[in-house]
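Hi Y.,

Following your request, here is the sequence exactly as I used it, all 327 residues.
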Amino acid sequence: YHQARKMKQKSLIFYDQSYSVHIERILSEFGKIGWNAKYQNYDQGLIEPNEVLFLGHVDSIPKRFLDTKNPKVGFSWAYDIYKYVNNPTMKAKLQENINKLDLLIVDCEYVARLAREIGVQSEKLRLLPYGVLLADYKYEKRRKKQSDPFNVYSNRNWEAGYGHSTLLEAVSRLAENHCNLVLHLSGDGKRRAELLRSYHDLIKKGVVNYHGRVSANKNKELLRTADVYVSASEYDGWSVSILESLALGTPVIAADIEPNIDLLDSGSHGTFFENRSPDSLYKQLEQLISNPWTTDAIEKSRRSGRRKVEHLCDFKNNVLEIGRAHV
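Below is the corresponding structure, written out as tokens. Let me know if you'd prefer a different format.
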């Protein structure tokens, strides 16, 4: 932060197609160190043409932004690259956009590799996990009574590709044998109403508890009290929700996509299920429910996960790197 205060450039405008929690955190942290940091929707146009441009969703940056002579820093949210990398038409558009950037920030090595495969030069890439504000995520030793409910939590967007059907189907099977199981869900999206209607019986029985859109503090509370966090997303970068879980010491079960395997060190900090397989997720949850919280293996996994976040994903440190990229 001391170095960031000395930087000559003291303003930042983040342009994107929609406001997100990631952008909010970036702007908030820069604001704390005295920068004039603000958000602007692409549709509203350029505010100050002489600024360095921070541009989100590299697949859909408007042409008028890319054609300016301003220095341009692109932020990939992971899916904006790999959902199009095998689509010839969109791949060409992606390449054209990225070629006009001066720097591309990605959050994990998997996305960096995909970017290289479509022709992005290594010197244009900056690998930077967005991370979490560790001061807000205190690691605590867990104490659980046998009579307490077994709480499963997921907070992913209710959109196609985020695996809610996989998770709900697995929990539906588990509930047949485990009356103490509760699945807590939050967030919103186009598929939310349809899926909750399909599994209405689980809500009626108290197996599923839908919390709606939640605040950052409520999200932390749900993560902290969860026995396991599940990420069933079929594509991802280094998921911030998984990082939050690791920081708090909450065990993680995640789809076996490459970014998750990398983030969880091939199982050192969590376990995996076969992507898109309710049966595989059911088996992993069943195994975790059957083992008590205090096992040495789970405690070792919790501590090592926290250490990984401390080492690589402290957002305070990473903001400074973003500032260096900006300058």
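The longest strand covers residues 11-16.

Thanks again,
Q.
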